[in-house]
Specification:
The longest helix has 17 residues. Strands 10-9-11-1-12 form a five-stranded parallel sheet, with helices on both faces. It has a four-stranded parallel sheet with strand order 3-2-4-5. It is flat and about 70 Å long. The chain is an alpha/beta fold and 320 residues long.
Length: 320
């Protein structure tokens, strides 16, 4: 009988805001959904549209087919390029094969592409701060001829970099980096190349920055912090690092509630919860529901910033 159950111990959940979908992710997912609606299934998607298994599985069920290379796509079906951006060679190949393609590259990633192109046209040597192999980095480096961009991942890389002309260097960054780590790398570059051309406005996107800020606020009051997101999601992995640096006892990246181990919460009075920019809000609710089964939960939302950004869809999908 219910009254024989031991009282569940209280647990405070601090919910970081903003969290979850950013405008670029939202737009990319809508592009796939609307393409399926307009052209029917299957619609091909080159690379995971965003780095989240739940999002990808839901779109697969609707009729999206995910491939890694354009060569895997037939020419008679639409193909969508992922939010991370693609090298210039990809749309060029799609055009030469007369394919219908929709570019879901986040506009803030496209902004970095334009910036890199501008520096290249001005004859500057370009440094890209980012993570090797990440599709966004592959896409940005692929905007320019081979060898025009040097990738820098660490302060040590920044200190070892030797340009052809120290007075003619520019840097751009991946949009999903740790704000604090990147500041250290930029400082090292500026110390060596005082003339270095910087982005007009920070390349790290507003959503990454805001989610990291919210985590710092929540981490200051939590013993454990849960980040909901996929292991291949750069911005989600960064949130775990930011939380650890902010001093939480334990920070974990989990795909969803089924990956939550209640043993992590032993002796914890407050747990912080956030989600990476490609994680759907229903996964956050799932984690809170799971916590509420085991504890007497009170939820407090902590708002670090208000986001009002939204991006237009390609005209071909919105035209009557």
């Amino acid at each position: 009988m219910a009254h024989d159950l031991p009282a569940r111990r209280p647990l405070k959940v601090m919910l970081a805001t903003p969290r979850g979908f950013c405008a670029g992710v939202d737009r990319a997912i809508q592009i796939v959904e609307k393409a399926i609606e307009k052209y029917g299934a299957p619609v091909y998607v080159r690379h995971e549209i965003v780095h989240n298994r739940h999002v990808v599985d839901r779109l697969k069920a609707m009729g999206a087919v995910f491939v890694e290379e354009l060569s895997e796509c037939p020419t008679d079906r639409p193909v969508v390029f992922s939010a991370h951006g693609v090298p210039k060679s990809v749309p060029a190949e799609a055009r030469s094969r007369q394919m219908l393609y929709l570019d879901a590259t986040c506009p803030l990633v496209s902004k970095v592409h334009v910036e890199a192109g501008r520096h290249h046209d001005a004859g500057r040597e370009i440094v890209l701060i980012g993570h090797a192999g990440h599709p966004e980095v592959v896409g940005t480096m692929g905007q320019l001829p081979e060898g025009a961009v040097t990738l820098i991942e660490t302060v040590a890389d920044a200190e070892a970099f030797t340009p052809k002309d120290a007075a003619n260097v520019a840097f751009v960054t991946q949009t999903t980096l740790s704000v604090d780590d990147t500041a250290g790398i930029v400082a090292a570059l500026r110390a060596r190349f005082p003339e270095i051309s910087a982005p007009h406005k920070e390349d790290i996107c507003y959503a990454t920055t805001n989610r990291q800020e919210a985590v710092k606020v929540v981490a200051a009051h939590s013993e454990v912090l849960l980040v909901i997101g996929s292991a291949n999601s750069s911005n989600s992995v960064r949130l775990v690092e930011v939380a650890k640096r902010a001093g939480v006892r334990e920070a974990r990246l989990i795909d969803d509630a089924s990956h939550l181990d209640l043993a992590w919460l032993e002796n914890a009075q407050t747990v912080g919860v956030t989600a990476g920019a490609s994680a759907p809000e229903r996964l956050v609710q799932g984690v809170i529901d799971r916590l509420a089964e085991a504890f007497d939960v009170t939820v407090q939302e902590v708002e670090a910033a208000r986001e009002t950004v939204s991006f237009k869809l390609p005209r071909v999908l919105t035209a009557g």
